[in-house]
Input
Amino acid sequence: MRYHVISLVAVFLALGIGILLGTTLVERGLVAEQKAQIKSLKTTFGEIRDKNTSLNNDLQAYRRYADESRPYMIANMLPGKTYAILTGNNPDEATLAAIIDGISAAGGSVQVTITIATHDKFGDQSVMANLATLFAMPPDQQALENRVFAEVLNQLRTASNTSILLTLDQLGVIHLRGTLVAPVDGAVLDGPVDTGALDKTDAPLIDTFVSSAFPMIGVCGSSAEESVLLFYKKHGISTVDHVDTVPGEVALDMSLAGKPGHYGSGGAANRMLPPP
Output
């Protein structure tokens, strides 16, 4: 029995020593592997950092080039031309400023910016009643909305009775910035007008301009959903995305100058700029 116990103790002692030695060797192997991985990661991160620095330098250089070359590309492209901007509630002011600045740099100007109310606004009972009286029409929401779009287009084309735009402003279905004093040469649609009802507001607005062959270009800034311009493209107007950048401003000016198309870097675009 004593020898048997001693043998068992020896076996367990041998197992313990084996486990201890095995664990030590495995730990050493893991430590060595981890050190190798850390060294590799440091090398990779260093390469990524250097590449990012190089790419950032290239980006800054191209931005400077774009800024400095813009006057050579668009100077006197729109001499004496005037335009209107159509937009929705709460437009991105930076995008509006870029549109106006781009047109002004090309020798044109923006007479008026017209904010179009959402579809729900036209459904207000008092609004419908007032519009029905104004246009001598039945109080049908979509029909009255379309009639407002037709009147906006008519005034942009003729400026024959601009006081009606003031009336529509007072009714709350549009909001005017600036004053329409003469017919404009085209319109820029800074969309979306109504994100929740593109088919009820943006679509009939675009269709009104397209059916009358009045120039309209749909644009959006860098933060807008590209699906909006895909929708505009489907409805038959030219589009420019990232209009709040120099390439976008140049593409917009070229489009307004008579080179329609779909420009930018988004899903609706075919080229960055019109072909030469």
